[in-house]
Amino acid sequence: MRSQFTEQDTEAFYDAEDELYRSFWDQEGSLHWGLFDQNTGEDFLEACINLNRVMAQKAGIGSSARVLDLGCGNGNTATWLCKSIGCQISGIDLSGVRISNALAAVQALPQEFRTLLSFQKVSATDLPFDDDCFTHAWSQATIYHVHEKKQALKQVYRTLEPNGIFIFDDLIKPKQDISQAAQQYVYERLLFDTPFSFSTYQDALKDVGFKVLEAQDLSEHLKRSYRCLSQMALNRSEGYDDKFRQLSFAYQQMVQAIENQDLGWAMYLCQK
Predict the structure, then answer these.
(1) Pairing between strand 160-172 and 264-271?
(2) What string of H, E and C letters represents the secondary structure of 76-131?
């Protein structure tokens, strides 16, 4: 499926919005959703770290791993993996602003970590890596923005070594007939569309050649994430212009879209 939007649209959106998101979402620049449990409570940032932990554990990432981080953003998760596990990570992202942020942040790290991290401004549909060069591929809150999703999945498959592991989360569309509000506040606001439901995403992965080891619908966690984010944006709005109130309202609409099954979120664990 080719989106009505382009990679240039997405790049411009995130280059322009990064500073806004960091101002209330996470000042360090980690911009993905959270996996809540009894230990995280309603602490959004702790839930985000919990998602990292769960994904790393499910993927079996160890210190000898060579990891592709597809959609690395500001490099926060790659740095977390590097510090927590000591593995080698190559991050790619479409946003030049975020890659610049990631490269700058790396320079503040001890040498032992700097040698394990690399970041490039690259499209997920044309990865500049050799075949079979990664043990693991990892992606958070990214592939829904790729306008040739099947091509991106093929690129991940190509660059993974035999039996390599791909773990990622992505937005899904539980039904094709969505409401006008969801179209406006979810799909058009975020410049994306997707043909994939929870089950058809698995079909697409299998078509590429992956074995789907585990699939988990995380839509309730996405709803909790946007409830938290709506309140965080609203809290930030005091004394400022309407942009934070507007964003808080948009996030409330995201919650409604999830409740109406106009939007969902899933995690997939795959093997080449």
Answers:
(1) antiparallel
(2) HHHHHHHHHHCCEEEEEECCHHHHHHHHHHHCCCCHHHHCCEEEEECCCCCCCCCC
pTM summary value? 0.94
Do 209 and 157 touch, CB atoms closer than 8 A?
Answer: yes
Q: Which residue has the tokens 């697409």?
A: 204
Instruction: Decide: 98 and 74 in contact? Cβ < 8 Å.
Output: yes
pLDDT digits (tens, 9 = 90+) for 14-40: 767 767 777 777 666 567 899 999 999
- Of 254, 14, 221, nearest to 246 (Cα)? 254
Work out the number of other CB atoms within 10 angstroms of the CB of residue 130.
9
pLDDT of residue 172: 98
Torsion angle, alpha carbons of 236, 102, 142, 4, to 10: 90
Task: Give SS3 for 143.
Answer: helix
CA distance 155 to 133: 12
Q: Which of 30, 36, 45 is nearest to 220 (CA)?
A: 36
Mean pLDDT calculated for residue range 120-125: 95
Tokens found for residue 199: 């089950």
Alpha helices by DSSP H, listed for the chain, are 7-24, 44-59, 76-85, 96-106, 111-114, 149-159, 180-182, 198-208, 219-237, 243-259
Q: Which residues contact 230 (CB under 8 A, 6 or more apart)?
A: 248, 249, 251, 252, 254, 255
Whether the CB-CB separation of 157 and 132 falls below 8 Å is answered with no
Q: Is the dihedral of CA 13, 16, 22, 28 positive or negative?
A: positive
Mean pLDDT lowest among 169-173, 187-191, 225-229, 234-238: 234-238
Q: Would you say how long the chain is, in residues?
A: 272
Residue 187, both tokens: 């799909």
Measure the CA–CA gap between 63 and 116, rounded to whole angstroms: 11
